[in-house]
Amino acid sequence: MGYQVLARKYRPQRFSDVAGQDHVTRTLLNALTQGRIAHGYIFSGHRGIGKTTIARILASALNCREAIGSEKRPTPEPCNACDSCIEIRQGNAVDVIEIDAATNRGIDEIRELRDAARYSPARDKYKIYILDEAHQITEAAFNALLKTLEEPPAHVVFMMATTEPENIPQTIRSRCQHFSFHAVKFEDILAQLKSIAAAEEVEAEEAALALLAEAGDGSMRDALSIMDQAIASAPLENGKPALAAAQIRDLMGSVPNAVFERLLEAVAQGQSAELMEQLHVLLNAGHSPLSLARQMARYLRNALMAKLGGEQTELLQISADERARAMRTAMLFTEEEITRNLQIVLRTFDDLNYRQEQRFHLELGLLKLIHAQRLLPLEEFLSSVAAGTTPGASARPAPSSAARPTSAPAPGAARSTPAASTPSSAPPLSPFGGSSSGSSAWSTTPTIKQSASAAPAISAPKEPAAEPTRTPMPFLVGAAVPVEAVEEAPTPDPIPAPALRESATASSGETPGVDALRSAVVQALAQGGHQSASTLLSTGNWTLGAGNLKIEVGGLGKKMLTLTVNSAAEKIIRAELQRLNGPARFLVVSGEGVAAGASAAAAPLAGSVQEEALKNPLVQKAKEIFRAEVRSVVDLRAK
Ligand SMILES: [Zn+2]
Predict the structure, then answer these.
(1) So what's the pLDDT on residue 420?
(2) Together in a domain, 195 and 143
(3) Distance 316 CA to ligand 1 centre (A)
(4) Does a structural domain hold residue 290?
(5) Is there a single domain that holds both residue 495 and residue 612?
(6) Could you tell me the sign of the dihedral formed by the alpha carbons of 202, 205, 210, 212, in that order?
(7) What is the pLDDT of residue 462?
(8) Which of 66, 183, 441, 632 lies in the 20 to 30 Å Cα band around 555?
(9) Are residues 349 and 481 in the same domain?
(10) Gap from CA of 85 to ligand 1 centroid (Å)
(11) Domain that holds residue 240
(12) Chain segment 135-193, per-residue pLDDT in tens
């Protein structure tokens, strides 16, 4: 006998030899044991996973002559020795007709088949038709077959193998037993390759076989086909072919995954130049951009699965070494980042298929990975906007401590750009608009949200401009519900050192002292009806910088702070500072340095809004229900 390819030579002859399709073989064995034979079977699944093999084993089991006349007939396992079994294995059994539906798909062929099916089998018990690629049969041809399936002669069995079961008409499907085949697991393929290597007397590295099994991608036949090629091209060692991983990668034109691990490390660290250099080396070595993009997508997919399911997840059909590698890469990124990277690489792969300058597109795609690293997750952005802080200011979990070199185009700066478009910190609207010295740190703080009308230049009017909300009751805003109380404002960015040094020289002279400013502002606020703001600021830490006044107050969350020192109160403060020739800019922040209890400790003034609110039974009830304390009361009644 001449040379036979491995896939045929080692084609399983018994149900128990078929790898990875236990759910199918178990059912078929049961059916055979009980003598429940259907007249139509559909075997569906990817290529090369054993559909036709199982169809043939089933045919052998049905027609095995060894069992004829015995009680066991049809036999669960064929003998593989009788004429019938041997002929079926060789594909020339007279009563088992294999039809490639891809070429015999028309109505004439199927009519012929249907007419022939009426006649009894020539020798064996069943007349069996195995239709490969059954989805290719035309609709008219299927209709011609339908009648036979509806009222089948007792001796006829149809077996349809297909990769696209959904393209088989429902009328046909509903008359058949449908078996859906699984992709063969990596371990199953690897075990089969090992036993074949031993049987063929091939010296094979474990890594080499793992590569072949991976390349099979769930298909035993694919893996065996590549193994055929690999053995044919393998160098001889002691007269035996020797399979090495490097040789197999050469054969498949693939790159070791270590390369992709390095590329993605460069991505995680924002090293664009390094990334481009590595890519240059790969392309120079003759790897096509298309194949690189495809392998990278596959590698990223594995990293994503490792991220989702851990290193040992079923979702990974790769060797232990590769699992560990995928996990290492997964640790470099967040789940969102890997997802995004995979998306970018897949899109790049798509692009490459119809582009002229493939190299440029691949370079662009990889650079996009780095740029995408600097994007801010939408959730993070939204939550920071809601909290009133600049998103860029919040430290993002860095994938590794050494990541993002400072010399890179400042990821932080790039990330904070979205904030510039929000009204609160857009330069023309900011109360600190046009400020020069080190104000970037200041502009990230929560309390300086301003409406356009409150620009510093037009802050002259003295009237408090209270909102027209006329509520009969003092509106309670300060019930510090535990949840609220937990939320602490982040420590504001420290004033840049240069600004502080400047203040030593600049703040002298005509500017009034901090104490004078404090008492004037506190008084003005009280007069303007902002009792709680007045109380709060009187307990704060006042610091004068170069043209800046910083007031740190304690015990209030960001939200509460903006409610207490609202825009109307800020207007009053600004007007007062201007009147006293004080600093042009001021800032109220919630600081940790100030005793949290400071404002709470201040007992409500007799007759104050605070006292009035505390007496209210509703407030008392609320305090009781929420086990809360009242920190601050804002009076919104017009004065
Ligand atoms: Zn037999």
Answers:
(1) 41
(2) no
(3) 39
(4) yes
(5) yes
(6) negative
(7) 47
(8) 441
(9) no
(10) 4
(11) 186-252
(12) 999 999 999 889 888 888 999 999 999 999 999 999 999 999 999 999 999 999 999 99
Ligand 1 centroid – CA 246 distance (Å): 44
Cα of 14 vs centre of ligand 1, distance in Å, is 11
Q: In this structure, what CATH number is given to the domain that contains residue 348?
A: 1.20.272.10
Q: 167 and 134 in contact (C-beta within 8 Å)?
A: no
Q: How far apart are CA 341 and CA 339, in angstroms?
A: 5
Which helix (H) or strand (E) covers residue 552, if one does?
Answer: strand 548-553
Distance 80 CA to ligand 1 centre (A): 5
Q: Is the domain of 19 the same as that of 68?
A: yes
Cα 22 to Cα 179: distance, rounded to the nearest angstrom:
11
Same domain, 547 and 616: yes
What is the count of structural domains for the chain?
4
Task: Say if residue 605 is in the same domain as residue 540.
Answer: yes
Q: What is the 59 CA–ligand 1 centroid distance (Å)?
A: 10
Which CATH number do you get for residue 239? 1.10.8.60
Looking only at the bridges linking them, the beta strands covering 548-553 and 479-480 are unpaired
Q: Ligand 1 centroid to 408 CA: how many Å?
A: 72
pLDDT tens-place string over residues 592-628: 544 444 444 445 566 677 778 888 888 888 888 877 7
User: Phi then psi for 423, rounded to 5 degrees?
Assistant: -60, -30
Taking the model in full, what pTM does it have?
Answer: 0.56
Is residue 338 one of the residues assigned to a domain?
A: yes
Q: Is residue 287 part of a domain?
A: yes
